[in-house]
Amino acid sequence: MKTVLITGANKGIGYEVARHLAGKGFHVFIGARNQDAGRKAADKIAKGGGKATFLEIDVSDNASVTAAAREFAKAADHLDVLVNNAGIIVDGDSAILEISDDLFRNTLETNTLGVLRVTRAFAPLLRKSKGPRVINVSSGGGQLTGGADGWAPAYCISKTALNGVTSQLATALPKFAVNAVCPGWVRTDMGGQGATRSVEEGADTIVWLASDAPQDLTGRFLRDRKEIPW
Ligand SMILES: NC(=O)c1ccc[n+]([C@@H]2O[C@H](COP(=O)([O-])OP(=O)(O)OC[C@H]3O[C@@H](n4cnc5c(N)ncnc54)[C@H](OP(=O)(O)O)[C@@H]3O)[C@@H](O)[C@H]2O)c1
């Protein structure tokens, strides 16, 4: 049975990706830092007929991430797909010169370093897969092409750096497919109810990369299943 771990899967885009991949026959590991929310999400998927297991993981905390990898290894002997989805936005509309060091550091800790540390901790389990895939949920806000529009600078820079992490990982892990995805502007707690896309639309490219995309598609930044500029 194929296995997938999705971080931040208790709600939003992460939950939607989990639900779809469970429907495609994956054993889904619901990564969440909040035990109650994570268990509830896993139960909901199980009630819908999917195979889902809650895995406690706070991506901003090394000890939590290494403990999660140990826990995972008790339940499954390999990981096929890692979806690094957990993310935060804390700087709203502050301008670049107004954000504090702490705010910047916290954002990078989760959105950028969090992805690297989860990938590092789970790489040995991914190496046991026949076709390992890593999908990093980034944002068009991180694109450098065309210049920044000044919105949520710490968040956007954390995604620019995440794109750098993605490209580096794709080179370092030649047998893996490692890609970054922009889900578009999606109606979640983060995106708000005025966003243009449903969670289903936001999840689509991630689900495709996890399942049907060619294994040799790697080192790219994608939206709507198509490559976009970094
Ligand atoms: N929504 C959009 O318009 C949009 C656009 C572009 C990119 N994205 C990206 O898509 C991803 C998912 O966003 P979303 O819209 O689904 O947001 P969301 O509804 O706010 O969900 C974010 C998820 O990340 C989890 N999370 C945050 N920090 C974490 C940590 N340290 N450890 C573990 N989990 C953590 C949250 O857990 P809690 O419930 O415990 O807080 C939650 O499950 C993010 O990477 C985001 O940057 C979203």
Question: Could you outline the blueprint of secondary structure elements for this entry?
Answer:
Layout: E1 3-6, H1 12-23, E2 27-32, H2 35-47, E3 51-56, H3 62-75, E4 81-84, H4 101-126, E5 133-137, H5 153-172, E6 177-181, H6 199-211, E7 221-223, E8 226-227
Parallel strand pairs: 1-2, 1-4, 2-3, 4-5, 5-6, 6-7
Antiparallel strand pairs: 7-8
Helix pairs in contact: 1-6, 3-4, 4-5
Residues 7-8, 10-14, 32-34, 37, 57-60, 85-88, 110, 137, 139, 182-183, 185-186, 188-191, 195 line the site of NADP nicotinamide-adenine-dinucleotide phosphate (NAP).
Kindly summarize this structure in a few lines.
The protein has about 230 residues and is an alpha/beta fold. Helices cover about 45% and strands about 15% of the residues. The chain has one domain (about 5-225): NAD(P)-binding Rossmann-like Domain (Rossmann fold, 3-Layer(aba) Sandwich), CATH 3.40.50.
Characterise the protein shown here.
The protein is an alpha/beta fold. It has a single domain (3-227), classed as NAD(P)-binding Rossmann-like Domain (Rossmann fold), CATH 3.40.50. The protein has helices at residues 12-23, 35-47, 62-75, 101-126, 153-172, 199-211, and strands at 3-6, 27-32, 51-56, 81-84, 133-137, 177-181, 221-223, 226-227. It has an eight-stranded mixed β-sheet, with helices on both faces. β5, α5 and β6 (177-181) form a beta-alpha-beta unit. α1 (12-23) packs across α6 (199-211). It is globular and about 50 Å long. The relative contact order is 0.15. The model has no long low-confidence stretch (mean pLDDT 97). The structure holds NADP nicotinamide-adenine-dinucleotide phosphate. NADP nicotinamide-adenine-dinucleotide phosphate binds at residues 7-8, 10-14, 32-34, 37, 57-60, 85-88, 110, 137, 139, 182-183, 185-186, 188-191, 195.
